[in-house]
Amino acid sequence: MASARLAVSAPLRTLRQSGDIDAALQARVDAGDVPGIVAMATNAQDTLYQGAFGLRAQGATAKMTVDTVFRIASMVKLLTTVAALQLVEQGRLKLDEPAAGIDPALADLQVLAGFDARGVPQLRPPRKAVTLRSLLSHTSGFSYPLWDADVVRYLRAARSDPALPHSVLMFDPGSRWSYGGSLDRVGRLVEIVSGVTLDRYFRDHILHPLGMNDTGFTITEQQRAREAHLHVRRSDGTLEPQPLEKHTAPRKFSGGGGIYSTAPDYLTLLQALLNGGSLGGTSILHPRTVGLMADNAIGNLDAGVMRTTNPAISNDVDFFPGVRLRWGLGHMINLDPVEGGRKAGSLTWAGLYNTYYWIDQASGLAAVVMMQILPFADARALAAYRAFERALYRARDAA
């Protein structure tokens, strides 16, 4: 199958007021809010904007370039969702059948009902089975300790009592929304059904067909030479650059994190989804499946707001205060329009190190913003993200 890589060039100026986007991003770098940033946007046919500003590491000399490599963490969840839905299209996975029928590790799960007066966890069987749909929509009951104090408390108890299971559900599947390790379980389902490791499945069925050659769980020395450094926000607001992480080839691959990519690569995936699952003659999903990803999968359950248990790693998360948020299969959905930016029904998510994407189907627009900063939902990184979004829509409206 021929690859369908989204074509980009530098410099690229297809929006009449793209200089305003440049100025908005450069201002954030000049103010010291972010050390460096890469941003790109596309419609269904063409890359509309690309820009790279600042440095890959504060205090160093290497400048950000459009092809800078980033750790995109949870943005791998979209790839995992696409992989699982490809197998649904083939009839090899079912959205609404018990997932334990594929992965026995999902059998005999217990729900945390609370803690007794001595702090001992109280467990009971779930009232519903975990399904692929509940995993993809984060209504399975799995929750991350980073944003769930009950998980932290339970894990502390489990460490001192080997009789307790290592992993439990925080609620009955389908009864609540909670962001957690559901997509790790989906990645394992993909491996079991396909018979190959997740990295190979991605490569053969998504990355290579789309020409996403800078995306993967491992990177080459040439790619590492283009990698951005992580920066940690100190209590005084300044940024401290970190050494590049020690990189070793993983033996296991997570459907929920741990992947590298670039803005052009990830924008290629977004453009394929904006096009109903196809790009340049290459199809990764049927249009009806892409439509299903964008449908509200959680009804009236609230989504998207998370309270941190570790402020060094993540701030509280509420990207769109006052906006009603839901979840589809793979993305968060804003039911209301965002002032100065995306339309209602847009799709979005992010990675721990402050990388972000969105797909605005109503406007025919998708975009990606990449930085490397901790904690997640860093206020100044979010301000840069919002500045890009507002400037992008102003330029689009003026075109």
UniProtKB/TrEMBL annotation:
Xref: Pfam families: Beta-lactamase
Domain (Beta-lactamase-related) ranges: 21-389
Domain of life, source organism: Bacteria
The protein, known as: Beta-lactamase family protein
Species in which this protein is naturally found: Bradyrhizobium jicamae
Lineage: Bacteria, Pseudomonadati, Pseudomonadota, Alphaproteobacteria, Hyphomicrobiales
